[in-house]
């Protein structure tokens, strides 16, 4: 009985095992989280169960940009005050949130849903690229900003996109200074993200 | 819009806010957890919603020992192979799990549900003490081990319990070497916990 598993009821063990899958929680912190939740059943545990089920049902990718929202088009695409002439291309929704948190971009977004990665078997058809080319062909779009990570996959994806967007009448730019080599956008401080957006340069 | 809240849909924002309440997760890691869950809707997100609701419904305190389980008496109290003559008193279920993980105790438990703490307004009536005295009066019980943290509240609770159990015909012991002063049981390594249980001494 060194794992202690036998003495935790199956419902509780199942909850702990699922909590332990969350990024940032391990087996021990999952137990602490389960104890916390059981102590806060009405204020936190039941609302969290409901919020998970509701988000799983309602939150879907925006058919225009790929952002996750419960409305389609998403709140950003539907926002008439945003600058529809600039589309910022990001790897995933976490990076979109990072740019929004920094207040670095007042235009629209396009979420690729990943990066090209031959080693992981991710090709152009696995990403939301066709819709991006379609959007970039619209007359209203003047600029596409490639806000992709400064990793090998990020840069080869940027290269692929710049080739496929060459036929569109848009200025292609990418984030410039401030993005550390090998770094992920989501971990950057807001000043760096804002500076990188301000000094973007032709792709 | 520096918080970026306005651009995350209400269902998603509610989910992130609730996840951020979990111990070990902050606002940023809650966002990462939400993104992870949305990517794993069927394998993790829906099962987690179900497990939370099920545990909130079914898991309750054992009417004998106070351990959390979906059956009453709990699996430990109902286990005929455990030594019913020794009752180990712990602060909460997390400490019970820590002792079980260490395989340090083959008897039964008693979960107080907290520690006496005049500063926080926690008195004897707020803890599961009456039931402990009742259990300790049973002829089959030979020993009560006070496995309480080596903090001021833990030690004053141990003192209070040893006074109230003085009338019962049980040997009163407490964990000995290995428990660091000011330390919480749940954070100890298993070898230390096992050693402390082995060298327990009269209270």
Automatic annotation (TrEMBL), chains A, B:
Keywords: DNA damage, DNA recombination, DNA repair, Metal-binding, Zinc, Zinc-finger. Transmembrane segments: none annotated. One of its GO terms (molecular function) is zinc ion binding. Residues 85-180 form the Toprim domain. One of its GO terms (biological process) is DNA repair. The keyword Electron transport does not apply. A zinc finger (C4-type) spans 62-77. The keyword DNA damage applies. May play a role in DNA repair. It seems to be involved in an RecBC-independent recombinational process of DNA repair. It may act with RecF and RecO. Belongs to the RecR family. HAMAP family: RecR. This is Recombination protein RecR. The gene is recR.
